[in-house]
């Protein structure tokens, strides 16, 4: 009963219940559609999750071909698959025990794949060294993060462990933290300035918990979920200086590193900036950086694999973490293979490169167009205001709700943005998340939706949202 | 640091370190072979794990074809795949959100698959009802078990939570229990009587911890790992009576239910026996039964999926468990698909049935032959004694070690059976597990090895083991 004595008594649980209200309503709507009830739409569009395939983005052919050949090695004989697909699959099968993806993998991942991941990181960071023994592959980055938190959080200490966590924040991290008995120390991203992370705010957040808990770590998400911000090098430098001064462990959730659409935005990793800063910082700041096969343009969420790279972590703590990973069997082999392909895609000259490049460009074009559309449509809609989405998978606009709508929501015992989303799914068949699930400043309201969809889906989403919003505002004004 | 303050100070950690010693030695041996060092063998046979593919058993074609087609739907067009393969893959893809195995699945599993699993259970148990809402799919049964334990174990109670656990026992359960701060209450299976579980022994074990801890559950493994016993209906009835009297939660690890080779042995599920016993038992005994895609003749360990079915569990506790499952994303979709095929294989009349049946029969014949060989060879070897292996994936014979060998091991600070296994891998290239990893009576020694291998591999294993054993006994006599 350990986990839930905690969760039972906290706010987040309440918010999750609100999500359940939405899910229930959606189920009802879908059932009615099935039974032939006439509505202004014929199907519900669900863009609650950062899940491109669910939203209609097609998987990358190269990834799927390699996976299928690994599963069913007869395909290795077929000349329907290009030679680099077959070579890749052969090499990966050799890396699996017994030459089968059906055998258990080592608990921290298949060594050949950790090796490829470390080569990818080194290349990404312009040569900063990366060592496979510091890379732990797991069934997704949620899992990696939970394991690292498990080592950092001491639920038995008289002063509870605290972790600085952004507002707004991707919900599962908060659930993990609370589940472990940690105190979530909120720091607010600055919406007006494009959701930037400001060190004075970190400072304020830290001061505010003096004597209340024992802060041990700072969690950052870059590119942001749901904020959509891509942090600048300067901002990262400041954060590193801050954690170094305050002796905090730095948890860098960088799962959206390949999802950057802003014209001037560029992803720079925490690890790279740390190396650039040189000693003593580069030798001392403890950093965990997370990445995932669920994200990027590949978006293989269902395969469940991610990795964490640890930097400057004390060897005894590394041993603890390794033991923790060893409590369970390794990540699914097929997820690991997807991770290998993600970090080591076809190169110019490879037979699969032209198709791979074409598919990647199509997705990129789609996302750039989507983001542009979202920005234009929402910012032209009275009552909406949306910061530029530079990266990640979500738009997180503010909505200004009419006081009467807020009143009505409160009467129904609901958060106003949940009320809005409930009506939206009912009336327009569009399922998105209310801002209260991610945290927001008092008396501000937001919605979040995934921008990784085909272009026509995004056109339809924005149409439904605009029409609904106009009607909603009218109704409550 | 929560988990490891526990594990750091317990015996099991020491045993795991012994495993590390073995793994290190094996790595050394393999490296030497690669460098051309001449040894009496050319490769190491690793039968430490219950992992049929690693040991050379081939995957089932139907399973792999369906999986490959789900991953790479172009294959659905190919007439190289039989029509039932394509139909199955189509149906399963429709059950995935967005029609892709790359989308996140619901946290307790894809509903259509839970439905199929419950139909399988109902059929297996001769019509005892099974409800999909009581079935939770997860990334493997280790994970399911850890989640259920998490709900049962209260690490903050003044009297620690205890769980009755067999000796010998599959190691990861013990690691999970200890990691959660539970007390492992050992009950000894009766080796002389074929590793049977005796209620008087449960009684003794329970008495022995009076005032020391608060026993809340009984964990049983049937068919046994590593014992190889298949429990009789009568034995199961007695266990159910016992847990009912003592108000214990019953954790039935039934992952080897399809692996039964004994001529007279038959798997009967705890749930079925519970239903047969009728009220009040059938309405009150709280039961969790575990199964896994890793086991059976399919053996897809690398895909990571299993399920737990809950019976008579209090709705509030069910809610806790569901919340716990919801903390992480669902099981890998491909593992779930393997689970669907495992519980819903081709039927007579289906185009894929003939090949499926042939492959299943080949594996069965192999295992029956292996088990017979193991029994005959080991029981004719001086110093060995092996109970019949009726089911599961392992043989767990006793070895009588010469006193001088025991002496030598102790001088080296090692368990005697670890010492034996170390010498075995070094001298004969055979990697197996020492009994001390699973628990055994004082001054008794065992070894464990997987019996799911091709027949010629088993012949080779027994040859290496016999030759080595004869030399080893001579050396130390
Ligand atoms: C910021 C962030 N981190 C981690 C995750 C989890 O990813 P995974 O599927 O690897 O567990 C997500 C998923 O939405 C995310 O948005
Ligand atoms: C008795 C028993 N239970 C559970 C498991 C774990 O299986 P899974 O791969 O589903 O986690 C094993 C694996 O060897 C086992 O032997």
Features:
homodimer; 477 residues; alpha/beta; Aspartate Aminotransferase, domain 1; Aspartate Aminotransferase, domain 2; 2 domains; five-stranded antiparallel β-sheet; 14 strands; globular; binds pyridoxal-5'-phosphate
Tell me what you see in this structure:
The structure is a homodimer. The first copy, chain A, is an alpha/beta fold. Chain A has two domains: about 5-55 and about 355-475, Aspartate Aminotransferase, domain 1, CATH 3.90.1150; about 95-345, 3-Layer(aba) Sandwich (Aspartate Aminotransferase, domain 2). Chain A is built from 17 helices and 14 strands. The longest helix of chain A is centred in the C-terminal third of the chain and has 28 residues, at about 355-380. Chain A is globular. Residues about 1-15 of chain A have low confidence and may be disordered.
